[in-house]
Design goal:
Blueprint: H1 3-10, E1 16-20, E2 23-29, E3 35-47, H2 49-65, E4 70-79, H3 83-87, H4 90-106, E5 111-115, E6 118-120, H5 121-126, E7 133-136, E8 141-143, H6 147-154, H7 158-165, H8 175-180, E9 186-187, H9 194-203, H10 212-218, H11 225-239
Parallel strand pairs: 3-4, 4-5, 5-7, 6-8, 7-9
Antiparallel strand pairs: 1-2, 2-3
Helix pairs in contact: 2-4
């Protein structure tokens, strides 16, 4: 689905959301009459320092004057790996964006990521994966890391990674694999108006406690993460 199709299906009564060279921002009134901040990345735009600080600013400005949920629409490339961005501290800018979303969610502004296009690596971590709930739209093509890049990092051959990807979601790109790992909370249906599915989600939002590791275990995508996290918590408590 295109950005215009996503917006029309989410907000059939209209909206004030703009796309400025790949940066999405604006407001929409939901069916509950609640006003939602809508931000994000479109047109498979790379997420660099300029984009990250701009999106962070929208979130922080909204915290000072608004209420209601925050929706983050995601169709990005990975983070922008230019010399300028790296020298300016891209990792800090991406972390700042993620922190603003987490902070908003902790302060009665539930955050919902809507992954409708591509996204990968740091750009996905700082947007969709920094929300309380990440929704997938059929046709989305996320990747934690593409296989050629993964081959360089792990020193495993492409053939070995492609074989592992058949049975291990961690090694495999794609919406279904991200869902199996628990990162995608739910995948919406193209044939049902997105406004209806958003209403259902808002009425049944999970609490702010991050359950991605538990979902990953339940869905068979990450069998050890929840157990390890629980063990680390127990050790931390015992040490005090």
């Amino acid at each position: 689905m295109t950005l215009d199709e996503i917006l029309a299906s989410l907000f059939p009564d209209g909206h004030e959301v703009q796309n400025d060279n790949g940066i999405v921002f604006g407001y929409a009134v939901l069916r509950s009459q609640c006003k939602a901040l809508v931000i994000g990345v479109a047109n498979r735009t790379s997420l660099g320092v300029d984009e990250a600080i701009r999106l962070s600013g929208y979130v922080l400005d909204s915290l000072a004057r608004d209420a209601g949920p925050i929706l983050i629409l995601v169709d990005s490339d990975s983070q922008r790996m230019s010399k300028r961005d790296e020298l300016l501290g891209l990792n800090e800018f991406l972390a700042h964006l993620a922190k603003t979303l987490i902070y908003a969610d902790m302060n009665r502004r539930p955050t919902i990521g809507i992954l409708y296009g591509h996204s990968a690596a740091g750009a996905l971590l700082a947007t969709g994966l920094a929300t309380r709930v990440l929704v997938g739209v059929p046709g989305a093509t996320p990747a934690v890391m593409d296989l050629p890049s993964m081959a360089k990092v792990t020193k495993l051959s492409m053939e070995a990674l492609q074989e592992k990807a058949k049975t291990t979601p961690v090694f495999a790109p794609g919406l279904s694999n991200l869902a199996r790992m628990g990162a995608v909370h739910v995948t919406w249906h193209e044939t049902v108006p997105l406004a209806d599915q958003l209403d259902t989600l808002l009425l049944n939002m999970p609490d702010a406690h991050d359950r991605r590791d538990v979902l990953g275990k339940e869905r068979g995508g990450r069998l050890k993460a929840a157990q390890i996290a629980e063990r680390v918590r127990d050790l931390a408590i015992d040490s005090h």
